[in-house]
Design a protein that fits this description.
Keywords: Coiled coil. Residues 40-95, 252-321 form a coiled coil. The chain has two domains: 2-82 and 302-395, no CATH class; 95-167 and 192-256. The protein has five helices and three strands; from the N terminus they run αααααβββ. It is rod-shaped and about 240 Å long. It is mostly helical. The longest helix has 171 residues, at 2-172. Strand 1 (379-381) and strand 2 (386-389) form a beta hairpin.
């Protein structure tokens, strides 16, 4: 029995050393757990911030998508307007081409009419020239006739003188006059007939000349009227066509300016869409990066949860070991030099410390609540070298 009693203090000292080591291990694990708790809280805070940023990014993404949809609608409207304007321009180009064709036909007709009129005028001028030549010839002939009349008058005067001289000589030569009388009247009648014809011919020629001049004047008036009417028509058509061309040119300039404005607006919208697409690409990349970071953080959280579960398991195992040791080796309620049992001391320190864990608090509470066992008759403490037996204390040297 004495040998057994001597072995008990040694075993108790060994158990206390193991208990101290386990307590130190518990403190180390508790520090690790507290650090892991801090890391988890920081990561949760980071995750919350990332979630907030992600929500903000999603809201901004939705706003950008709405803006893009509105701008796409505007672009479709602008494209429709451009298409309508192109169709209008095409129709107006066709109308202008038709008008140009009509203008060409009208100008060709005008040129044809002018050529015809020029040919007619040339023909009429040639006829007028010929008629003028005829008139000049007639005038020359009239002058020659006037000269012939003058000569005939001179001959008549000479004949009258001869007749007067013959009449005077008739009184002296009655026989001779009777023989010559039948010849003289016949000659006088012929001369009178010639004189009357010569007197009538200039009047007839003058009347013919007057009629011819009247007909020429009428023809010239008709030609001038036709030429003036054709010229007025041609000038009117040319002026109308010029006005139409000017109006269509003004309309084309206005429509081209409108088309250019619409093209500029379309280019601006395209540039804005490109910029927005680039912004969306950057936002998508940021979201992908944030999602990758979130996945990494989730993986880290899973790893930390696993490590916490392992630590909890180790803590539970240590708690079970401490309970077993406390059940086997807790000293009765008599303290030794103000020293408390290891688990009670640990519970007091843990309660006083700001950082704590549930497992350690449960350990300390279980240690404090454990009921005292029967008092051992002998108890040895290697630190103080005290031995208790039946309430009496003895010191000895180990």
């Amino acid at each position: 029995m004495s040998a057994r009693l001597e072995e008990i203090p040694i075993e108790l000292a060994l158990h206390e050393e193991t208990q101290d080591k386990l307590v130190e291990m518990l403190f180390v694990h508790l520090d690790i757990i507290s650090e892991k708790d801090c890391m988890i809280s920081q990561q949760k805070h980071d995750i919350q911030n990332m979630l907030r940023k992600q929500t903000k990014m999603e809201e901004e993404h939705q706003n950008v998508l709405l803006e893009l949809q509105e701008k796409n609608q505007r672009l479709h409207e602008v494209e429709k307007q451009c298409h309508d304007l192109k169709e209008d321009n095409w129709e107006k180009d066709n109308e202008i081409a038709e008008l140009i064709k009509d203008n060409g036909t009208l100008t060709a007709q005008g040129f044809c009419h002018t050529e015809i009129l020029q040919t007619q005028i040339q023909e009429k001028s040639e006829l007028c020239f010929l008629k003028n030549e005829e008139i000049q010839n007639l005038r020359k002939y009239f002058k020659s006739l006037v000269q012939e009349l003058k000569l005939v008058k001179a001959e008549n005067n000479e004949l009258k003188k001869v007749m007067h001289s013959n009449h005077r000589g008739s009184q002296s030569h009655s026989g001779d006059s009777q023989e010559q009388m039948p010849v003289i009247p016949t000659e006088i009648q012929l001369l009178q007939m010639k004189q009357s014809e010569a007197q009538l011919e200039p009047f007839q020629k003058a009347a013919q000349n007057k009629l011819f001049e009247k007909s020429l004047r009428k023809l010239l008036v008709k030609k001038s009227a036709n030429s003036t009417g054709n010229q007025t028509q041609i000038t009117a058509t040319v002026s109308v066509l010029r006005k139409l061309l000017r109006s269509y040119e003004m309309k084309l300039e206005k429509e081209t300016s409108k088309v250019l404005m619409l093209k500029n607006t379309a280019q601006r919208f395209e540039q804005q869409n490109k910029e927005l697409l680039l912004m969306l690409g950057t936002w998508v990349k940021c979201l992908e990066q944030s999602s990758a970071k979130m996945q990494e953080l989730e993986e880290k959280n899973k790893e930390l949860e696993k490590s916490l579960q392992d630590l909890n398991k180790e803590g539970k195992a240590l708690e079970m070991i401490d309970r077993k040791q406390s059940v086997m080796f807790i000293i009765p309620n008599t303290p030794k030099r103000g020293k408390v049992s290891g688990l009670q001391h640990l519970g007091a320190i843990r309660q006083s410390s700001p950082v704590g864990s549930r497992a350690l608090r449960q350990l300390s509470s279980c240690a404090n609540r454990s009921p005292p066992l029967r008092r051992c008759p002998w108890y040895s403490c290697p630190k103080y070298g005290m031995v208790k037996g039946g309430g009496n204390e003895k010191k000895f040297l180990l």
